[in-house]
Write a structure and sequence with these properties.
single chain; alpha/beta; Alpha-Beta Plaits; 6-stranded mixed sheet; 5-stranded mixed sheet; about 30% helix; about 20% strand
Length: about 450
């Protein structure tokens, strides 16, 4: 239902049974599953940890906050929390799940001979898919978009994780483009004091979206998920064993992949830390389960498929890196201490957002510059035209606090332009740097 609960136990069990049988007709060997549920199924809380609180007092602090925000009687829930931090702040992300709802799901799964190993909020799975692209020193607002054929769904995050336990759905009208829909959402968020820094675009219909034109039309920097996962999670993708003629449908099973990675990287988070008492399969009705109408099966199939990802991989172990051998400590010969050099600030080129603008009017030149920067290791590059084609001198625009980026770009382009002009970029700009190449660019 609208709150994430179960309306009809037998109907849902039948749908799961048919969906699993269509994929694994010989039956599932592993009967323990992970339950991935939508945000409205949970009670949710966000709270900032005071800077002066002792580590031993954090747990008590969380419980006090949860009793105020969720329920005075937490005995009616299973719950757990994450502590997300950056250089300046620590945030608590707390989830609670009603025990009566847990009984209902246990009942459904027992009808198809399955049991719940753990429960995971889908929002945490989505967040895990792009978490590594975030900058710890900066708080950003991110809108995760599921672009479907007939419906678009949005989840709001910041650099710490989910903002709340809500999501929105919009039916796609044939005469309304997704760019127009999202542009109106961007305006709506801005009116409520939330300036979106970027969009993460997923869903089956996002496969052929062009990043540059989409970003331009929506007005917010857009990262296609299909580019993020192979770049940041390639080692995890290798665990999935597929036939040689098959590829993993990342945009279809994004929540399953995200949940799989979350479980491996956040092993301490578990809503079911303690064995939950009070449920017995003996109280369930016996007999065959009638199959539902086909439309219901199709609707629930994705729900059941969430389990299968974990069932198939539950016996895998990502493994650990081998320990480094101990190194002998040779006796060092005293040498004069040289002057301490000025430290060079490292630049992670793959995470920079670069915009290349044609200021010379030469056709095809922007693409050449983009290819050159790609060879140099820069990850996200958009191209376009400058406000005019009369630029005699190439200009590099960077934000005031990131002048070191300009130095890196100048070094990488030294063979193409000798003395580019460096100017300030607006702090609110979506890009980290803008390169306007002029007639002096070789």
């Amino acid at each position: 239902d609208d709150s994430g609960g179960i309306i009809n136990t037998d109907l849902l069990a039948s749908a799961i049974k048919e969906a699993t049988a269509s994929i694994t007709p010989t039956g599932l060997k592993d009967k323990d599953v992970y339950l991935i549920l939508p945000p409205e199924s949970f009670q949710f809380m966000r709270a900032e940890v005071p800077a002066d609180i002792a580590p031993t007092a954090v747990s008590s602090f969380v419980m006090d906050k949860a009793r105020q925000a969720v329920s005075k009687d937490l005995e009616n829930y299973v719950f757990d929390y994450l502590i997300q931090d950056n250089e300046q702040h620590k945030q608590i992300i707390f989830y609670a799940f009603d025990k009566e709802a847990l009984k209902s799901f246990q009942e459904v799964l027992s009808l198809v001979d399955l049991s719940i190993s753990n429960i995971l909020p889908g929002a945490l799975a989505y967040f895990k898919l792009f978490e590594k692209t975030l900058r710890k020193e900066k708080r950003e607002y991110i809108l995760y978009i599921l672009y479907g054929e007939n419906q678009t769904t949005g989840y709001l995050f910041d650099s710490f994780g989910p903002i709340d336990n809500k999501r929105w759905h919009e039916e796609q009208e044939t005469n309304t483009s997704i760019e127009k829909l999202l542009k109106s959402k961007v305006t709506e968020y801005a009116a409520n004091g939330i300036k979106l820094n970027r969009l993460i675009l997923s869903g089956e219909c996002s496969e052929n979206v062009r990043q540059d034109t989409f970003t331009k039309n929506v007005g917010v920097w857009t990262n296609p998920l299909k580019r993020i996962i192979p770049q940041f999670y390639q080692d995890y993708l290798k665990i999935f064993i597929l036939p040689s003629n098959k590829t993993l449908p990342l945009l279809t099973y994004d929540v399953c992949i995200g949940a799989f990675i979350f479980v491996l990287e956040s092993k301490t988070f578990s809503l079911l830390k303690k064995k939950f008492p009070g449920f017995s399969t003996s109280s369930l009705p016996k007999g065959a389960i009638s199959l539902p109408v086909k439309e219901i099966v199709i609707f629930i199939s994705s729900f059941a498929l969430s389990f299968l990802t974990f069932i198939a991989l539950s016996n895998f172990d990502v493994g650990k890196l081998p320990p480094l051998p101990l190194l002998a400590k040779p006796t060092a010969t005293p040498t004069p201490v040289p002057p301490t050099p000025t430290p060079t600030i490292s630049v992670n080129k793959k995470e920079l957002k670069i915009k290349v603008l044609n200021g010379s009017g030469m056709r095809g030149k922007a693409t050449e510059v983009k290819d050159l920067l790609t060879e140099k290791g820069y990850g996200e590059i958009l191209t376009g035209n400058a406000d005019n084609f009369d630029y005699a001198t190439t200009e590099i625009q960077v934000k005031k606090e990131k002048k070191h980026i300009a130095n890196a770009i100048k070094t990488d382009l030294k063979e193409q332009v000798e003395s580019p002009k460096v100017t300030d970029l607006d702090d609110d700009a979506a890009s980290d740097a803008v390169i306007i190449f002029g007639s002096d660019f070789k």
